[in-house]
Specification:
The protein is mainly β and 314 residues long. Helix content is 14%, strand content 47%.
Length: 314
């Protein structure tokens, strides 16, 4: 009898331990260069979401370089869709800190401090709170690689050169002022921009073929040619909901790439609702008409687009 009780106790203990491990288990995701879920054979980064299978208000996640070195640590309010909230830290592959900053609703907020790869201080940037769209912070202090402080208390002559690009111009009250010039070494292009009180007045990029591209917005997100409302109308009219899923409600979170020509490629469901509806959403993206491509300083570029689709029960 004692032996039976002992065995029963061990079984219950093992079951409890297994349940706890299942609840607190982490989730590993492979990501490509565009931060889209990939395969173990074709990835550039990995993401570890701690205690993914537990029911929590926030989840710590960590991004790693392919070498296994830590790249980024942050907290998200959604375990599937990274909605960053609170303090985040970015690292170079050599282990040195790249920057630290606070996030509110997935947007940088407050002071960001950054360093060069060798550990020397680089900048102090202040991001405004509660701003919509892409917001560039004010440069409060900036040091060049030679440790010289070239921007102090929001004023100075900014100049920075990296492996891929360079740019230079005046900083006044933390914002660009007057004429700025720079180059993109990868695209073999150069630009000239005019600013007034931090606002971009005009810009011209000269590409590798010596063609000039004028622009009034530095970074332009990709968009449907007839507007996002028209695109959602296309999705709503074309979405096929199986009879057995007519009571299903929820949201599909997906991503896709809008390439330089406006084609929608590589659709991926990050979080779905099942019943074949996710696969239908992927097919609709593949069959969609071309968009206006995203642009970086007037030149079309590949851009990642995140699309939520709401499914309503009938």
């Amino acid at each position: 009898m004692k032996q039976i009780l002992r065995i029963l106790f061990l079984v219950l203990l093992s079951t409890k331990a297994f349940s706890q491990n299942a609840v607190t288990a982490n989730k590993l995701i492979y990501l490509d260069s565009m931060w889209v879920p990939s395969t173990q054979e074709n990835y550039k980064y990995t993401r570890l979401i701690e205690e993914y299978y537990s029911d929590k208000k926030t989840y710590v996640y960590k991004d790693y370089y392919k070498s296994g070195k830590i790249k980024f640590i942050a907290t998200t309010t959604d375990r599937d869709i990274m909605k960053i909230e609170g303090q985040a830290v970015s690292y170079y592959e050599n282990g040195n800190k790249k920057y630290t900053v606070n996030y509110v609703n997935s947007k940088k907020s407050g002071k960001e401090f950054s360093w060069y790869e060798n550990g020397n201080i680089k900048s102090e940037i202040d991001y405004p709170e509660d701003k919509e769209g892409i917001v560039e912070g004010k440069i409060i202090n900036f040091w060049n690689p030679e440790k010289e402080q070239i921007v102090t208390d929001g004023n100075g002559q900014y100049s920075y050169k990296s492996e891929n690009s360079e740019e230079a111009g005046e900083i006044k009250n933390g914002e660009p002022e007057g004429t700025w010039k720079g180059s993109d070494f990868k695209r073999k292009s150069s630009f000239i921009e005019i600013y007034k009180k931090g606002k971009l007045i005009s810009g011209i990029t000269t590409d590798s073929l010596n063609t000039k591209h004028s622009y009034g917005t530095k970074y332009l997100q990709p968009s449907p040619k007839n507007g996002i409302s028209s695109f959602y109308s296309y999705i709503g009219k074309s979405m096929r909901i199986p009879f057995e899923a007519r009571k299903v409600s929820g949201k599909i979170y997906m991503t896709f790439i809008v390439d330089e020509e406006g084609n929608l490629v590589e659709p991926t469901v990050i979080k779905g609702v099942g019943y074949g509806i996710d696969e239908n959403a992927i097919q609709l993206i593949k069959e969609a008409q071309k968009w206006n491509p995203g642009k970086n300083r007037g030149i079309p570029v590949r851009a990642l687009y995140k699309l939520p689709i709401t499914i309503m029960a009938k």
